[in-house]
Amino acid sequence: MDLQLVTPATITQSTPAKLLLAGAWTTRGLDAIGPQIAALGRAPGSAMVVDSARIEALDTAGAWVLQKLLQRLRGEGEAGGDVQLLDLRPEFARLLEVVGQATVLPAAPAARRSTSKLEDLGRSTVAVLEQALALLGFVGEVALALAGCVAHPARCRWRPLLYNLRSAGFDALPIVGLLSFLLGIVIAYQGAGQLRQYGANIFVADLVGLSMLREFAPLITAIIIAGRSGSAYAAQIGTMSVTEEIDALRTLGIAPLELLVLPKIFALAVALPLLTVFSDVLGVFGGMLMARAQLGVSFGEFIDRFVKAVSVTSYLVGICKAPVFAMIIAVIGCFQGFRTRGGADSVGRQTTRSVVQSTFLVILADALFSVAFSALDL
Amino acid sequence: MQSATPPAEVVIELRKVSTRFGDHVVHTEVDLQVRRAEVFALIGGSGSGKSTLLREMILLQRPNAGTIRVLGVDLQDIADDQALALRRRWGVMFQHGGLFGSLTVKENVGLPLREHTRLDDSLIDEIADWKLAITGLKPEVGAQYPAELSGGMMKRASLARALALDPELLFLDEPTAGLDPASAGGVDELVRKLRDTFGLTIVMITHDLDLLWQVADRVAVLGAGKVQGIGSMSELSQIDHPAISMFFAGPRGRAAQAQAGQQTAPAAGRKS
């Protein structure tokens, strides 16, 4: 049954009126038969004999090819003589008969329309607008559910909320901490060379403190959480909608938004600011280590300067972005999850989208915050 | 392909197969033989290890002890190339279809051919169309994606894919579960036709009493980790054992039996 043991199927035209078929007419022996069949010709008007005594094996694929060959030869004969198939083994003949019966001709292949560039552009624009509208609708639904939850606090689901708080918050501490620490080191290290030139070593505290607390800590935390929890939300809800679990919830009278979305939003809105604080601490600590190693600024001096340089406002400006980022991440993750249709590959696609879109929107929101804060002189 | 052929060749042979999941014992020394060109059904209550046994036959799982030989090849310590050669000789239809969601139905059916043969794409498409036709699907279905199909169509498409490489052996996991009676009847007919025209050996797991009475040549009843009885449905109906009689007692069991009795017995009625 090895590939090597199969004799390839062959056709030889010994005389114009005689074809010799040989070899294994099976899926594994048929690779080279196409050109041979195409090369065959038939003199019109004469009878033709197809000798199949040397066919060693025949399966449905082979029978299909043989059937097509015979049909073609018969068609080419025009008014001419008959085409006879000789010496086919009885078991093969039966198979050929089965194939012959079923020769329903494939329906016209679905016409694949070619689309113009303009049409493609239009379609993708409409798709983007439609998605934006759907997102707006989803935000509205979430807001309604939220209002319902506020009006009837008994309907709040604490267990999933606490679970999400742990999985999105507590479990993310190591990775958020490590990356913030490294980020703090990098900022201090990059700044060290410049500051040393001017003898302004002590200002490393300003550099690290302001950049970490105002910008980098909230941003890096939000991006990590978008990749870590936002994708998980999309994948979880997406898989649930593929396996009809979402429909099952609805029929059981449980609002999927209340069970699946609100706890995630609440949990993230609490967890992300806390994670940002944690990121602040470790980022500044990283900068502090680097300041001592590279610039000879001791911990005491660093902290002295830090307290003077970084106002409480700077700290709060950073923290107050976090709940907004949390909303974006949780809403986009859940929204893309609910848009999953079909099967496994759709889950993958929506998960990717959730990460890309929430990262994009987080950075966009951060830019808007910068504009707003500078207008407010904060 | 007559049932009266001299000593039938054994296609699948299980000897003293035992399976455990941790402390949970699924099979203890199961012995079983499936002969060529017969329709063999595995039945048993939930959790009796039917699916596990099927998975062991198709190399998805290994038993803890015992030997399984399929088409003359011992599955224990099978080499990779041997396993590949063996896998080309059988087709499996999964309970939920197992169709690939990112491919159209026709691409799903053509996939084994594209993967394992060097045929032309156009020929593969034609063969896929035809296999779909054999299983009773309309040609338009080929262009659809599995997510757009109904349960019955999904099973048929899955069967078409299992048949793509002209297997000698066909495994069906619950071929009629979740189908309406008309579609289920169609599957009965289809299974019989496949066996008769292509001489296929068919192993199936089913709870469908009609399928058991009308199509299955031999049935093995699994219970308490062992084969409790084996034989045609009419032979099994004579055995008095709780694991077996549950398939014959009850209104459904009796109705299916009565209906089968009106027609000829399944083993003899095949060639009519």
Characteristics of this structure?
heterodimer; A: 378 residues; alpha/beta; Transcription Regulator spoIIAA; 2 domains; four-stranded mixed sheet; 12 helices; 4 strands; 8% strand; B: 272 residues; six-stranded mixed sheet; four-stranded antiparallel sheet; disordered N terminus; disordered C terminus
Q: Could you please describe the fold and organization of this structure?
A:
The complex is a heterodimer of chains A (378) and B (272). Chain A has 378 residues and is α/β, with parallel strands linked by helices. Chain A has two domains: 3-101, 2-Layer Sandwich (Transcription Regulator spoIIAA); 159-375, no CATH class. Chain A is built from twelve helices and four strands. Chain A has a four-stranded mixed sheet, with helices on one face. In chain A, α4 crosses α9, α7 (204-242) runs antiparallel to α12 and α11 (312-338) runs antiparallel to α12. With 272 residues, chain B is an alpha/beta fold. Chain B has a domain at 94-166. Chain B has helices spanning 50-57, 80-87, 105-116, 121-134, 151-162, 181-198, 209-214, 233-236, 242-245, 250-262; strands at 10-21, 24-35, 39-44, 65-70, 73-74, 90-93, 169-173, 201-205, 218-223, 226-231. Chain B has a six-stranded mixed sheet with strand order 6-7-8-3-9-10. In chain B, strands 2-1-4-5 form a four-stranded antiparallel sheet, covered by helices on one side. In chain B, α3 packs across α4 (121-134), α3 (105-116) packs parallel to α5 (151-162) and α4 crosses α5 (151-162). The two termini of chain B are 14 Å apart. Residues 1-5 and 264-272 of chain B have low confidence and may be disordered.
Provide a compact summary of the structure.
The complex is a heterodimer of chains A (378) and B (272). Chain A has 12 helices and 4 strands.
- Distance from first to last alpha carbon of chain A: 79 Å
Number of strands of chain A: 4
| Unreliable residue stretches of chain A | none
Low-pLDDT sequence parts of chain B: 1-5, 264-272
Given the structure, what is the number of helices of chain A? 12
What is the typical, i.e. mean, pLDDT of chain B? 83
Number of helices of chain B: 10
| Biggest sheet details of chain B | 6 strands, mixed
Radius of gyration of chain A, taken over Cα atoms and rounded to an integer in Å: 36 Å
Q: Beta fraction of the residues of chain B?
A: 15-25%
Termini separation of chain B comes to: 14 Å
| Helix/strand structural class of chain A | alpha/beta
